[in-house]
Amino acid sequence: MIWMRWAALPALLLGVWTLVASWVTLWGIGTLDAAGWPTWQWWGYLVATMPNADIQAAVNGWLMIGAGVGSFAVVMLSYRILRDAKGLFGLDERPLHGASKFASRKEGEKAGLIYSKTPLPDCLILGKTSGPFGWAVRYLCLPGVEHVMLFAKTGSGKGISYVIPNAFNYGDSLVVLDVKGENYRATAAHRKRRLGQEIYLFSPLAEDGRTHCWNPLGDIDVSDPSYISKLQRRAFNIFPEVQGREKFWQDGARTGFLGISVLIAETPGMDLNPSTVFRFFTRGDSLAVLTRMIEERRAAGNPYSQTCIDLISDYLSGTDEVVKGMRKHVTTTMGLWFNPKIAAATAKSDFDLRQLRRKKMTVYVAVMPSDIEQLGTLLRLFFLQLFEANTDVMPEMDKTIRYRCHVLLDEFTSVPVMRAIAKATGFARGFWMHFSFVVQSKNQVREEYKGQGEASLLENVGAEIIFGTDDPTLCKEASERAGFDTVETVSRSTPRFLSIMRAKEQTETAAPIKRALLLPQEVARLRTDQELMFRAAVPPFLLNRLRWFEDGHFMRLQGRPPELPVVTYRIDRDDGTVQLPAGG
Length: 584
What we know:
By secondary structure, the chain is of the alpha/beta class. The protein contains 20 helices and 14 strands. It folds into three domains: 2-84, no CATH class; 145-213 and 350-478 and 526-544, P-loop containing nucleotide triphosphate hydrolases (Rossmann fold); 227-342, no CATH class. Helix content is 41%, strand content 15%. A nine-stranded mixed β-sheet has the order 6-7-5-8-9-4-10-13-14, sandwiched between helices.
């Protein structure tokens, strides 16, 4: 029906123009009363010949005036029609239940995404577009330093479709939480040989002992005036703030850990690493050893710092039961360092996390699924320290910072809650640091990070990717975010008997109804080669997933990974120097 209105509009405007121009012309030449209601008279005077030249000139003059006034009236009427009658003529008519569609290339580019024939090393690859008969396929790339969150259940192919392709492609520094070690085996050779990066694998529980080492306290330098502040930050990372009944013991354990760490840092010849600190809490004669060390330094005229003595005094000032409780709290939290493999792998540092933005390097943190819970404290400590080491100074204030750092966190929620990272995703980009959070479902994130930066974590991602999922909450949310269409449904009413012979009694009624662009069950049943991608201010994207071993740009990049050092250790025998506590 709208096209019929548009067809009638020129006739309406011409009629209005003729009426106004005729009225003005008749009034001007003084024949309005004689002519009656103006109709088409302007056209009549236009072709008529007047008796003499003076009358002809006067008529021509009023014809011009009438045409001008008529044109002004038509312009004003057209403006009102276009401004106030958009629904009548189908301009910007809003569908009753809204309209939705998948994003086009133009909309994607307007939202800051890049469509490229080849993967771009300064971008994250989100997926691929489809083309007719496989032609005109493009990689959809996210430039800059924006975060990505991928929702994919176990076994859905998140490694082959997102993690490994981006580990192959990303050109600046990269840190990967590498569950099962498959990312290192697939991409390390390419990143070393073709991208020219330094490659490190931190795998503290590797069966063959092949791993680089990383000491969480290795960057502490006692000649730096801020060394106590740095140690205090490490203490908070290991013993984070808690509430309730555990707060007393947690705070005491943190103070004890900090005091012992400062003492070791100020003692020449002692290695400052978690294992050394931990041993002071496990040996029964630690109080006697601490007392002896402090008295020897006092006697030598080179005492420990007052802060060190105050911390140790505060730790030891409680009753025997309280001190024993705090020691037990430390050994329970740091029990991981009873393992000689862990102690050896964290005794020194083969790489410096502070250099990630200053030179191109890749660090793989490899862990087997069965070891994730056991290594939780160490993994949390690693990534928190990684974050702190690279958000200390802005790039514009330090010209040695030349590269971005991307952190690819596969199975993100398997690591104990990292509140600092969750709350800081909004400003981390300013430090040229961005994350890919790979999780199984959004509920998982909400449960783990409830009250711990959940909102900041979920609201500051530049792209959200969903693989086929059986999480009903996520399916429903994705369906609602994709939006709704207004579609027309036809209802038919016919007689029950002999309807073919009773045509006059048959009726059809058309009515608009709401239909989701993607129903929840359609989200759950996405093909195994498809994915949904959401980005702010643009419709959803329906993309194809990559399979790196089938993709022409990646399938030949795998090679033999670099050789790794072997970390050896020995289990020392009791030498009798440790005094066991006396029995009660």
